[in-house]
Amino acid sequence: MTRDRVFAEKRRQIQPFSFNREVAAVFDDMLVRSVPLYRESLCRQVDLVTRFYRAGTRIYDLGCSHGNFGVKLQAAFKKTGFTLVGVDTSKPMLEKYRHRLKPPEPGRRIHLVCGAMEDIRIADASVVVINLTLQFLDPAARDHLIRRVFSGMIPGGVLLLMEKTVHKDTVFQDLHLDIYRQFKRENGYSDLEISQKRDALEKVLIPDTLDTHFHRLHRAGFSQVDVWLKWFNFSALMAVKQGGDPKV
């Protein structure tokens, strides 16, 4: 795993964060050192997918990056057939994803699409995954995307959403940020790296409160919504489209 040193040197000017080739090369290290419980959350998402997936339907990974979810899904499904549509705007990330995929087996298809997730037509989906991606979408477009996800899902389907979140109480928000910065220091990031990355993400990554996520999901039509994992300013939610018979 290549060490993330993207923001290790002092920069005269901080450019907006981008999922470019430099970031793609160190993305695994960046995720593990920047996202609390990342590996655990991914494993449990794959477990949830095996419970909700229905043969003949599709799995969508919106903002699939370099394929951590898809690679784990391939291993978990073993010989079971499935169709996964991975969508991302970053060509370097998708190039890395393609190199990581095992040769396709009969009945198992992973289609990678370079494009904006809000432009993708979603149909016959039993599972939709949005990992740390909605937060990069224009806030004005988020409701529309979630409505399209709901419309494209079969009854009993599930949306798995993991996001960085903000707290509506400023006291708790400040506490969460302090603990998060400490988490990054414990993982080897310097104060300079933390500061420069924060500046790069400003106005690029715009998180919502949990209440905002809940209201958005309910407005879209999801009546069953749950937070199944939370670590201070990171939250993982699941939203089930009513109907069907999920294997829970």
> In what range is the share of β-strand residues?
15-25%
Overall number of structural domains: 1
Per CATH, the architecture is: 3-Layer(aba) Sandwich
Query: What percentage of residues falls in helices of 4 or more residues?
Result: 40-55%
Q: Can you tell me the overall shape?
A: globular
Order of helices and strands: HHEHEHEEHEHHEHEE
How many strand elements? Answer: 8
Distance between the termini: 35 Å
According to CATH, the homologous superfamily is Vaccinia Virus protein VP39
User: Given this structure, which CATH class is correct?
Assistant: Alpha Beta
Spans of at least 5 consecutive residues whose pLDDT stays below 50 are: none
Radius of gyration: 18 Å
The CATH topology comes to Rossmann fold
For the biggest sheet, the summary is: 8 strands, mixed
- What structural class results from the helix and strand content? alpha/beta
Oligomer state of the chains in this structure:
single chain
Mean pLDDT: 95
Tally the helices: 8
